[in-house]
Amino acid sequence: MEEKREQVRSVTKSEALFTGITREALIALHETDGVGKLSIANILLYGLSKGKGALRFAFDFLAGDWRDMGLHAKQAASIVANMRPEAVERRLRKHEERGMRLVTYLDHDYPEMLFQISDPPWVLYYRGNWELVRNPAIAIVGTRLATGYGRKVTEDIAAGCAQRMTVVSGLARGIDAAAHSGALRAPYGTIAVLAGGVDHIYPPENKALYHDLVEQGLIVSEIPPDTILRPGLFPLRNRIIAGLSYGVIVVEAAKESGALITADLAIGYNRDVFVVPGQITSPRSIGALEYLRKGAIPVLDETDVFRAYSYILPTKPGNPEAEEASKQTSMPTSNLTSDEALIYNFLLDQPFSIDELTIRSGMTFGHLHSVLLSLLIKRRIHQQPGSVYTVL
Amino acid sequence: MEEKREQVRSVTKSEALFTGITREALIALHETDGVGKLSIANILLYGLSKGKGALRFAFDFLAGDWRDMGLHAKQAASIVANMRPEAVERRLRKHEERGMRLVTYLDHDYPEMLFQISDPPWVLYYRGNWELVRNPAIAIVGTRLATGYGRKVTEDIAAGCAQRMTVVSGLARGIDAAAHSGALRAPYGTIAVLAGGVDHIYPPENKALYHDLVEQGLIVSEIPPDTILRPGLFPLRNRIIAGLSYGVIVVEAAKESGALITADLAIGYNRDVFVVPGQITSPRSIGALEYLRKGAIPVLDETDVFRAYSYILPTKPGNPEAEEASKQTSMPTSNLTSDEALIYNFLLDQPFSIDELTIRSGMTFGHLHSVLLSLLIKRRIHQQPGSVYTVL
User: Fold this and answer.
1) Helix crossing, A320-330 with A148-161: angle to 10°?
2) Residue B187 has pLDDT above 90, yes or no
3) CB of A255 within 8 Å of any CB in chain B?
4) Taking CA atoms, what residue in A is nearest to B352?
5) Where would I find the DprA winged helix domain in this sequence (chains A, B) (predicted)?
6) Which of A306-315, A371-380, B169-178 has the highest mean pLDDT?
7) How many domains does chain A have?
């Protein structure tokens, strides 16, 4: 894989098919060391210039044929070696042994959303339920060093979003892990896009989550197995997170956080950026909050996301019961009767005596008394000296 | 004062002057029990219909004249009693004794901004420095039951805003008090608009702040002295807070909080609403955050406010030194050298070992060591086993 960011013009799927290249040849090129995304694009453009089916017999090409396409001698030799039948066989076995499956740019089940980005992956490796890429998806990203607040709201919002959309993240520490955890058991589930190979568990503490994702979700990577993980792979991974998703929710991110790269990519792909507000004094929120400044959509709960995609989302949530349950955890007046909620809301803004509450609520003293008692039992309010009540 | 919200058409200043009504007569009407804002508007409209100078001799009008304008017998009698020379004299003495001054709708020093609202006050009472109403102003409002976070960011943002704008609030507990405190000693200062009379200190715990405002700021009220404070006066007060200001910053506000009334009034007056983000799990922030949903401008610091009014604000802050000082309190990398800030920002996102920091920073080991030591001494970072550093 090359890390150069200059891009030759992108090759459409029909152009790629026109060259006659086979998915096996595309995989062989993709898995050849020293042949990067741009080299493959150049090969396809060359084939395109040579007419229909020019790359059909790529497996029979000699080193000179590859060099004619502008590749170096070393690249050409590696490709030829990598296209020998025994090499193809070895790769197939390796994929199979590791339980990984492949989808190429040429396949009917390649994710539609990735055709819309400027540098779509040629090959994707996966483990788990590929059907998840058919769902409308929302990415949730943020700092590895999440606060308790960040993890909690990420789990809640992920669980909420996954009632109607699949949650995409990067299986990193912190916000990513919380996003996967929150969405894992919800109807639309969750997809992890890895920076390393699809069989490479990183970071190690997410091992259990990784296996849960293999069982109940989907793990995707563009990176061939055995590729050594290096920093340059993270931005490449981030573009797939953004590319698979309608939008990216940034929960907590310090300035210069990697999560902001994903948000910037999302903007570049004409996707939406959402921000979960946090305290302006929190260094872990400030990078996210700066997107609010630039016009990102604030997210108080999943409805803010659904509202943005109401034209395209399934109208019925996958599992209304689970949705109700997820709502309840985020509402301060959940599990309260309407009278309890009324009193609770009065007390939220300022403490009141029972006399003041009688006037404000219009309840009889006896009924108000029973409502206050119930709120005390539910540990939602506190009684201070002089029968003054405050919220807990 | 009437509390009816239906409004007769508003009367322009030149229309009011056309009727020939004197400021003394306007004050007498305003201070007559049972004669509200709308009654005064009706009197002026009546005068307008009768031709130039029709109300010039209001002090000589008999009860029948007032009744001809549609007033009840009781109102008419009260007005006549209140316009007797000894009543005028008594009122003047009262205002003087209490150190309050008056500005009427007819006066050249009536606040320009209040001419633009649909129901401007006919009379304003004040103590302190009236010149402050000439400044561009920003309101800061929020819950009485502010959190520590709410009070802290309010003070910081008020101090920041008051470098170039006058901060308007309501001298209530919580956010209001923090706004006045933060802005009090800054160049553009602060105005408190009271719901009760300008000499009525409420709540009692803000007594010291009240006196500071009389000395160094401005206390304003529409309410005649000796008016008994009642809930209906608070929304009337809130309209003056919104009316005096280009925009309203909501810091913390629960659902249904009174601060949101001020924000709604601001929208009605075509002013801006700003919101200081907070945690979405905080019941005290949720009312404010819902304005973000509706498109309010997020405020991370005073620059977000200044940016909105860059076309109209003085380009030079009143006191650059104080501005610098106020900035420093809100920046996580304040008081750090550029090298210290660089390392600190690395560590904000994730912990690093000293080896990793050497590579990332490009600093020599010796220099990096001294930077880390300095950050440790400043208590900004923490050293964990294995020479791994995290932020504090």
Assistant:
1) 150
2) yes
3) yes
4) A145
5) 329-386
6) B169-178
7) 3
> What is the pLDDT at residue A218?
98
pLDDT exceeds 50 at position A329: no
- Name the residue among A304, A349, A391 with its Cβ closest to that of B257: A349
- Which structure tokens are listed for A91? 């790769």
Helix axes A148-161, A175-184, angle to 10 degrees: 40
**Where does the pLDDT of residue B1 fall: very low under 50, low under 70, confident under 90, or very high at 90 and above?**
very low
pLDDT beyond 60 at A5:
no
Give the structural domain span for A24: 1-96
Q: Which of B303, B329, B355 is the last residue of a domain?
A: B329
DSSP secondary-structure letter at A8? P
Q: Please indicate if any CB of chain A lies within 8 Å of the CB of B338.
A: no
**Phi, psi for residue B218 in degrees, rounded to 5:** -150, 135
Mean residue pLDDT across chain A: 89
Task: Kindly state whether residue B18 falls inside one of the protein's structural domains.
Answer: yes
> CA of B218 to nearest chain A CA: how many angstroms apart?
27
Find the CB nearest B144 among A276, A286, A350: A350
Q: Which of A218, A220, A263, A222 is nearest to A242 (CA)?
A: A263
* Interchain CB contact of B295 with A (< 8 Å): no
In this structure, the dihedral spanned by the alpha carbons of residues A38, A44, A47 and A51, taken in order and rounded to 10 degrees, is -140
Which CATH number fits the domain that encloses residue B376? 1.10.10.10
Residues A274 and A95: their CA atoms lie apart, in Å, by: 37
Contacts of A330 in chain B (CB under 8 A): 281
When computed from its CA atoms, the radius of gyration of chain A, rounded to whole angstroms, is 26
Decide if pLDDT at A347 tops 90. no
Q: How confident is the model at residue A311 (pLDDT cuts 50, 70, 90)?
A: confident
User: Long-range pairs for A270-273 at CB < 8 Å and ≥24 separation?
Assistant: A270/A116, A271/A242, A271/A245, A271/A246, A271/A247, A272/A246, A272/A247, A272/A248, A272/A296, A272/A297, A272/A308, A273/A247, A273/A248, A273/A297
List the alpha helices (DSSP H) in B186-280: 207-216, 233-244, 258-268
B361 and B285 part of one domain: no
B277 lies in some domain? yes
Report the distance separating Cα A330 and Cα B163, nearest Å.
Answer: 39
> What's the burial of B62, exposed, middle or buried (CB within 10 Å: 0-12/13-18/19+)?
exposed
ipTM greater than cut 0.90? no
Amino acid at A153: V
What pLDDT, on the 0 to 100 scale, is given for residue A3? 42
- Mutation target among A280, A329, A334 for the B interface, most CBs of B within 10 A: A280
Residue A273 is predicted with a pLDDT of 96
**Two structure tokens written together for B390:** 């995290």
Residue A351 touches partner B, C-beta closer than 8 Å: yes
Q: Percentage helix, strand, coil, to 5, in chain B?
A: 50, 10, 40
> Does A179 lie in the same domain as A272?
yes
In eight-state DSSP terms, residue A93 is: H
Yes or no: say if A146 and A178 are a contact pair by the CB < 8 Å rule: yes
pLDDT, mean over chain B: 89
Q: Is residue B115 part of a domain?
A: no
Which positions ≥6 away from B162 have C-beta within 8 Å? B182, B183, B186, B187, B188, B189, B190
In a domain, B303, yes or no: yes
pLDDT at B123: 97
Nearest to B26 by CA among B132, B120, B130, B129: B120
pLDDT of residue B8: 59
Q: How far apart are CA B24 and CA B22, in angstroms?
A: 5
Residue B321 DSSP symbol:
H
**Closest approach of B279 to chain A, Cα-based (Å):** 5
For A342, half-sphere exposure in the C-beta direction (CA atoms, 13 angstrom radius) is: 13
* Model confidence at B134: pLDDT above 90: yes
What residue type is B192 in one-letter code?
A
